[in-house]
Amino acid sequence: MPDQPKNLPLVFDEPRGRKKPPRHLADLSADERKALVTGLGLPGFRAKQLSTHYFSRLVDDPAEMTDLPAADREQVVAALLPELMTPLRTLEADKGTTRKTLWKLFDGALVESVLMRYPDRATMCVSSQAGCGMACPFCATGQGGLQRNMSAAEIVEQVVAGARSMARGEVPGGPGRVSNVVFMGMGEPMANYKAVIGAIRRLTDKTPDGLGLSARGVTLSTVGLVPRMYQLADEGIPVTLALSLHAPDDELRNELVPINTRWSVHEAVEAAWNYASRTKRRVSIEYAMMCDINDQGWRADLLGDVLTSYGDWGWVHVNLIPLNPTPGSKWTASRPEDEREFVRRLEAKGVPTTVRDTRGSEIDGACGQLAAVDV
């Protein structure tokens, strides 16, 4: 297996001078919560009681936490459940089964999350940064620049809010639960690596320490921060890795995904292959289909050759994404016949390929449309 690339920085600096979000229960492990509570002079089991309310019962009103004495409740809620984000607006599509929420964070930054209910599952698409610094020209989020990283708890709170909506029957289809989480909202998750991994651990920790989701139901997307992809393979969390490739050749990908000038197609795909090899989890290659830009038949052939050069043992799957329109963009979706031909050529190379079912485009809630604008 390849060695991790050396002498490559692992972090991207966010803008300086911003206050950090207040510490929240979801930022801490179970042991850290207990230590904090005992440090307040309270019994350690209060931390578990509070975790049960937040993660298991999905309570958002402290008055409902009646097993906590009033005096203790006020103190522990103030210490561990500060208000992190306020919903400003929720838009619905698909007869109410797709819901996009605009959130105002504690410092005024705006982010969006999307809840999508399907017949067999409910998926939360969450943001990991306010804005994004990757500057992909076809993505509305990328054109807005990066404001700041989100904390682990701010990421988790998006999922918990969706879980509450499902549990309370606010989404058509009756009461249910969130089963899947995709890090495909605003931001580059691996540029906020520590907080994202912390959030994934909270989401997958058994209740009441966390939300109790299956790691296999979590998809972590990246445009190709290669050192972080290698690091993820060592975390021991079997999430699905999704590499947003969008072009099989460096010349075009340099334009579509500027980080490619730092880590090439070959380096990004090899890191993805390493993740699949180490974890035995199939990697998803995300590929936004853009008319006359990256949808030529020869590029489908090249993509197939690049992926199968690492073997045909089922390590990879291509997920084609019909490009979603953004205001004023020159980029448009591929013609249906070109999309079908792209699929045919990839499958002829032995590469499993599907076309994503786009949800929420009419409320600017689909892939690449999240811009978090308050109007």
Automatic annotation (TrEMBL):
Limits of the Radical SAM core domain: 118-361
Q: Where in the cell is it found?
A: Cytoplasm
Please list the cofactors this protein needs.
[4Fe-4S] cluster
Residues forming the catalytic site? 112, 367
Report any one BP term from Gene Ontology. tRNA methylation
Note accompanying the cofactor annotation: Binds 1 [4Fe-4S] cluster. The cluster is coordinated with 3 cysteines and an exchangeable S-adenosyl-L-methionine.
Q: Which UniProt keywords apply?
A: 4Fe-4S, Cytoplasm, Disulfide bond, Iron, Iron-sulfur, Metal-binding, Methyltransferase, rRNA processing, S-adenosyl-L-methionine, Transferase, tRNA processing
Does Ubl conjugation appear among the keywords?
no
Q: Which GO terms describe its molecular function?
A: 4 iron, 4 sulfur cluster binding; metal ion binding; rRNA (adenine(2503)-C2-)-methyltransferase activity; rRNA binding; tRNA (adenine(37)-C2)-methyltransferase activity; tRNA binding
Catalytic activity field: adenosine(2503) in 23S rRNA + 2 reduced [2Fe-2S]-[ferredoxin] + 2 S-adenosyl-L-methionine = 2-methyladenosine(2503) in 23S rRNA + 5'-deoxyadenosine + L-methionine + 2 oxidized [2Fe-2S]-[ferredoxin] + S-adenosyl-L-homocysteine; adenosine(37) in tRNA + 2 reduced [2Fe-2S]-[ferredoxin] + 2 S-adenosyl-L-methionine = 2-methyladenosine(37) in tRNA + 5'-deoxyadenosine + L-methionine + 2 oxidized [2Fe-2S]-[ferredoxin] + S-adenosyl-L-homocysteine
Report residue spans for region: Disordered: 1-24
EC number per UniProt: 2.1.1.192
Which residues of the sequence carry a binding annotation for [4Fe-4S] cluster?
132, 136, 139
A GO cellular component annotated for this chain's UniProt record is: cytoplasm
Coarsely, its chief localization is cytoplasm
Q: Give the note.
A: Reaction proceeds by a ping-pong mechanism involving intermediate methylation of a conserved cysteine residue.
Q: Which PANTHER family match?
A: 23S RRNA METHYLTRANSFERASE, RADICAL SAM CORE DOMAIN-CONTAINING PROTEIN
Q: What does this protein do?
A: Specifically methylates position 2 of adenine 2503 in 23S rRNA and position 2 of adenine 37 in tRNAs.
Hey, which family's this protein in?
Belongs to the radical SAM superfamily. RlmN family.
Name of this chain's protein: Probable dual-specificity RNA methyltransferase RlmN
In its UniProt entry, the species of origin is given as: Nocardioides panacis
